[in-house]
Design goal:
- The chain is built from nine helices and five strands, in the order ααααααβααββββα.
- By secondary structure, it is of the alpha+beta class.
- Strands 2-3-1-4-5 form a five-stranded mixed beta sheet, covered by helices on one side.
- A hairpin with a 5-residue loop joins strand 2 and strand 3.
- It is elongated and about 50 Å long.
- The two termini are 34 Å apart.
Length: 194
């Protein structure tokens, strides 16, 4: 792990303890959560470090490296972004610029199952928004959020490429077309607990 990643974790920990001490212990649960977060810090695997070393001097290396990182973790964790910056010799601001510019990259851990609702023109006109609204009501999470149980992520996408089946959504890449909102509960039930 880079020195910055360790330093940042230690600073957050000290800050949490300081806050707990000066607030009469009311924020002690926050400090405990931050301790747990520090214990769960992720680092690059030797395979990822090797991949980064291979791509370090190649043009367009940042996007390739971020793709591989996201493929491994399911998203780009903050502490991993610091490590990538160190290994590539790239400013952290540039890495975050790429992550936030491209919709593909995620900065938060996704749910176990990803539901993508198409909001392209054909799907939108044929009820894509109603599908999204119904999913949000069923799962208790908005678009680009994860359900409280960590089971589902909901995302609105521009086009899935199945316009003839509009409105369309995918669950973990499996396409469901010609949908009505009342069919969604059955689709969600198929993946719940799986």
């Amino acid at each position: 792990m880079s020195r910055r990643g360790i330093h940042g974790a230690g600073w957050r920990m000290r800050q949490a303890c300081r806050t707990a001490r000066f607030s009469g212990g009311r924020t002690l649960s926050i400090a405990k959560k931050q301790v747990a977060a520090v214990e769960e810090i992720q680092t690059l695997t030797p395979e990822l470090k090797s991949f980064i070393a291979e791509w370090k001097d190649q043009p367009g290396n940042l996007i390739m490296v971020l793709h591989r990182v996201q493929q491994h973790f399911g998203y780009v964790p903050r502490e991993i972004a610091f490590e990538v910056a160190d290994l590539l010799g790239t400013p952290l601001a540039k890495i975050y610029g790429v992550i936030t510019f491209y919709h593909f990259f995620k900065m938060t851990k996704p749910g176990k199952h990803t539901i993508a609702v198409c909001m392209g023109t054909a799907c939108y006109l044929k009820g894509g928004q109603q599908l999204l609204d119904e999913l949000e009501a069923l799962l208790g999470a908005k678009a680009d959020e994860v359900t409280d149980d960590g089971e589902f992520s909901i995302t609105a996408v521009r086009c899935i490429g199945c316009c003839g089946l509009a409105p369309v959504l995918t669950v973990d890449g499996e396409v469901y077309g010609n949908l009505k909102p009342d069919q969604l509960a059955g689709i969600v039930a198929k993946y719940r607990g799986k």
